Amino acid sequence: MAKTTQTSSWMATLFNLICCCLLISDVFAVSRDNFKTCDQSGFCKRHRAVAAGESPYVVLMESLKIQSTSVQVQILNTHNNVRLLLELYGLKENTARLKINELNPIKPRFEIPLGDTLVGEPKQQGLKIIDKSDQSVTFSLENNKIVLTSKPFRLDFFAEGDHVVGVNAQGLLKFEHLRTKPEPKPAEPDNEEKAEGEESEEGENAEEKKEEEVVAETQDQPSEEPDMWEESFKGFADSKPNGPASVGMDIGFPGFEHVYGIPEHAETLALKSTKDTDPYRLFNLDVFEYELYNPMALYGSVPVMIAHNEKRTVGIYWNNAAETWIDIRSNVADKTFLSKVADLVKGSSDIPQTDTHWFSESGIIDLFIMMGPSPKQVFKQYAVLTGTTPLPPLFAISYHQCRWNYNDQDDVKNVDANMDKFQIPYDVIWLDIEHTDGKRYFTWEKDKFSHSEDMINNVASRGRKMVTIVDPHLKKDDNYGVYADCKNHGLSVKNKDGGEYDGWCWPGSSIWPDFLNPDIRKWWAGKFAYDQYKGSTPDLYIWNDMNEPSVFNGPEITFHKDVKHFGDWENRDIHNLYGMYVHHATGEGIKLRSNNQQRPFVLSRAFFAGSQRSGAIWTGDNMGEWSHLKISNPMILSLNLVGITFSGADVGGFFRNPEPELIVRWYQAASFQPFFRAHAHLDTKRREPYLLEEKQMKISRDAIRTRYTFLPYWYTLFYFGERDGGPLMMPMWVAYPEDKSTFQMDDQFLVGSSLLVKPITEAGGTGTSVYFPGQDEIWYDILTQETYNGKESHYVNAPLEKIPVFQRGGSIIPRKMRERRSSGLMHYDPFTLIICLDKNGAAEGDVYVDEYDSYQYRSGKFILKKLTFKNKVFESSSAVQSGKLDTKEWIERIVIIGYPQKPNAATLQSGKNTIMSLDTVYDSKTKTVTVRKPGMNIADDFTIKLS
Q: Which of 317, 516, 600, 647 is deepest in the core (most CB within 10 A)?
């Protein structure tokens, strides 16, 4: 026994040493060998091997059942006589839903529970038959048409006469039905041993046996393939007690050259053809120091794809939580026309087309087709399905300072004091895993953080917050209360034999709560109560890391696929949901501790469709290299397109020691991204912004301060994001959908519709070419007020102290210009309204105000003002009827840029009889009028007239 214990301890020490060595960034980058390729994945190989052409699946038209909003019909696989059930639903918001499952499975197949990704049962819309024959049925859905064809099965979607989506047009549908494992065949006797009667019987049945062999060869899964019931990867055996159960299908986008989405990948915004690579993979994995511009899986998965052309936008959502791969082919990129659409699409083969092939290891086919036709409508259609990003508290969209790790309470105190000493605003300081007692989450290292409440309260005295990390792995230690509670009540995931699943992560030997179980999510949420998480306060918030989950000694650094979850589901069925469940349960815990009065903040690394409802996401363990700064823009843009709007990338890169110039440029770029956090690996040099040389420190400080001046604009965007579901940081084509030159553009972006940002992402860069969109539009440099015409490209000087940012003519942006230590001290600061006039001398915008941290706004306690300037008159009026919000916030100045001459006078009118004269200052060089101290409360309606 003693020998076993000593051996175990030695192995644990060795394992931790190996893990630490692997994480030293200056030695190793990502090891591709740790992660599967398609050729190493049995179901991926099988689906990729399906040849385009005649599909074995036919629709049995005689089984058609039609209701007012839905259709049911059977599909027959003519190769093996397995029947499937197709369900087609018309949904509100110009959306359709297609479900395909086995008609009579031997056991249920996994479907994501309602309320987990989908916020509820989608509301159905009328689906009417407008034509029917033996071979096809045509339905109408609003202004759209859906054609179901029988032999072979296919579905085609038409929007206002244009063919926009084709399902199974290439015949790549493959649905591996559940079955029992066949018994091994007994060895055949030698011919010499066969009885004379047996030989005769064989002769009589030879033709019949030959036919059976032919059928076996053409079935979905030839039984002789070695990976059907078990496969292995790098010595890890993956048992498959249910056998092969994958599903896949092709989805084409006729008329579309560009598709976007399916994060997370370190890839360009416009997705590339996978003709000569692996497919894009969606399988949540811990891939530190990830490589760029390849389809490898990363930390999160959102199976949403958006196709866009000059005329319209459409989207699809593949509602499946299993490992998924997506192939992409383009007749423009690949110079081949892959789909048979001649019978359905007018025009020549010059019409662009993108064909995609989706396949998942298990589950069912559950596909949503969002018909647009505009980008904003697609975003709304997806938001109706999976929800939006709730309005965060104001501190959460401010600047965050993080490191692995701040060493102790004195270190936290010193960082906090130095940020004040150098007048660098920040809102949150973070603690990584070393703050805990031996990686036991919900605890504090007793020597270094013995007075955690005093530490948090000291930080909070200047309007700031703290964040601690809480990962889902629990150290196996019977004296650790959270582990003991989880173990004693059987709350952890199980191995394939039903025992407690044991894996390695930061604490060593660990278990993982089974977050698939709603009751266990409630149990986890309860752990954030103040009497459970001792030493926490209302100013402490949470960060979920390693929740893919990361398992150091597991296959691909994650769970074994045959790990068992609640309901007897395997991890292969639900893998991509796990991190979302952790994130959601943590957010619920933060809400519960305030009796659902205060908004939570929780950052997560792993995510899935619907994770936007739980909080913020970041792009994981990036590197302090120029290439990673550059890729952060398309990565965050892709996340925003699929609803993960509160997202960002670690400033400076997590690994390595970035040069000062890179740090400065990263601060500039990140100050215009939704989530703004600096973070660094424990082996890197300290790089808090005040440690930079004076010049670089001041420039970085200016970038952070700029973020704070724009907080009212960001907060207003987040409000509209919760309401409407659109992106906050958006690709150019979203706002300019007809401008083809923007369709592949991902090195510049828009914040809302009013700010254009072009970060400098090259070493030594002192300028850049900026494309200014919009026919007849004007764009104003936010620093110099220099103007640029739309539909033109211009070279813009950008020395180190400048990031090119431009405000759109015709927009009004609310800002707060007073310098403060934190956003918490800005709540009652006055507004400056920046008005940039269009060519007609007009502009409009919005400003949203509430309590900045509570849920009272959902009961109407907020202010939303519509701001307009037209015909020399500025007006602030209530946009919606809302409840009474008492605020001291007032308007300090109004800046009107692009005004052609000095006004003679400015008069303010509030109410029927209140008229007063206002002071103005005019700058003829920049054509800017500044109206000084109108003094109105932001809640008031008023007008200002220039003459």
A: 647
Tokens of 498: 């039903």
Q: CA dihedral defined by 589, 591, 595, 598, rounded to 10 degrees?
A: 150
Closest residue by Cα to residue 310 from 405, 228, 375 = 375
CB neighbour burial string for 297-308, b if at least 16 within 10 angstroms, e if fewer? bbbbbbbbbbbb
Q: Is the pLDDT of residue 381 over 60?
A: yes
CB 605 within 8 A of CB 299: yes
**Model pTM above 0.90:** yes
What is the DSSP track for 183-223? Answer: PPPPPPPPGGGS-HHHHHHHHHHHHHHHHHHHHHHHSSS-T
How close are the terminal C-alpha atoms of the chain, in Å?
94
Q: What are the C-alpha distances in Å from 202 to residues 191, 207, 208, 561, 813?
A: 11, 9, 10, 43, 86
Question: Which residues carry out catalysis?
Answer: 545, 621
The per-residue pLDDT for 7 is 37
Tokens of 201: 């019987």
pLDDT, tens only, 607-635 = 999 999 999 999 999 999 999 999 999 99
Closest alpha carbon to 778 in 791, 768, 767: 791
Closest Cα partner for 59 from 160, 117, 132, 161?
132
CA distance 302 to 283: 10
pLDDT tens sequence across 217-266 = 334 444 446 789 999 999 999 999 889 999 999 999 999 999 999 999 99
Determine how many CB atoms are found less than 10 A away from the CB of residue 871.
Answer: 9
- The residue ranges of DSSP E strands in 433-547, in sequence order, are 465-469, 474-475, 503-505, 508-511, 540-544
Residues 6+ apart with CB under 8 A from 175: 57, 77, 82, 84, 100, 102, 220, 247, 248, 365
Distance CA 848, CA 843 (A): 17
Cα angle: 185, vertex 189, 192; to 5 degrees: 165
What are 73-103's pLDDT values in tens digits?
Answer: 999 999 999 999 999 999 999 999 999 999 9
712 CB-side CA count, 13 A: 29
